[in-house]
Specification:
alpha+beta, Beta Polymerase, domain 2, Methane Monooxygenase Hydroxylase, Chain G, domain 1, 9 helices, membrane, CorA_cytoplasmic_dom, transmembrane helix, cell inner membrane, transport
Amino acid sequence: MSDSSDDASTLAAAFAFDGEGHATALDWAAVLATRADAPFSAGFRWIHLQRVAGRPQPWLADASGLDPLVVEALTARETRPRCEPFGEGILLNLRGVNLNPGQDAEDMVSIRLWISERLVVSVRLRSLKAVEDTVAELEAGRGPKTPVGLVATLALRLTDRMEPTILDLGEAVDDLEDAAAGDSLPERRKVAEIRRKAITLRRYVTPQRDALARLVAQPLDWVPERVRNQLREATDRVSRYVEDLEAIRDRAGIVAEQLADRRAETMNRQSFVLTAIAAIFLPLGLLTGLLGINVGGIPGTGDSDAFWIVTALLIAIGVGLYLLFRRKDWL
């Protein structure tokens, strides 16, 4: 059993639950006495660890009593939301929006959980506001009665934190649609950025919906129906977020198509005007070029009024072509 201070520094939070809704914070010594294969007489425990890159997790690997495959899943570098039964417990990976300072919300933060009847072990790589919300509820005396109840509380807090981010994206698309419908054109960069954020969020939120749905469906006799209803609520909310993100992605795509069409129409119109102007000057250029050839026999060379006659003729031809093009709505 490891008692190193380096190992203790990886402890983010730990609580013991009495099964009646009350939670007591645990120190590192109490965590060292916790083993998955030595259940407690009553209640359950939650141990939340911080994974530090390049630093081992001696308690988790050697003293927790967890299967090595479980430890490997909890400390994996990259994860996607999933729910997998394993032995007497469940492996669950979830994601939450990244609300850390200076970070992008769509760069979602993972939390990996091992859930059994008497023990919940979770591992994070970066801090999650949803976990902080859950810890604050426990410290305020509002704790769950079962391990899956703790997970349901955490899942609901994750969805609570997602909602403002998705609403902001929806409002941003509303503004883009209003701008596209008016005279001003939104920047394509903004449209692409909103669409990218929606696609990135959806990539993690969709499997999270499936993971929560699978957790609800697990035939565990230590999960009360009230907790299953909480999980169903979290699943329904995540399902709605998936639909919202798909709508945001599609609406941003439509705005991008509108921008492309408007720009193509503008360019076509400008090209058409330039072509029409060239068509007006083409016969004028032909006539002046013909009269400018350096050979004998050019009419009017000896007439002092010939220049003004030719000028008037060119103006008449130009005005006539202009009026013709205007009548045909080519200009």
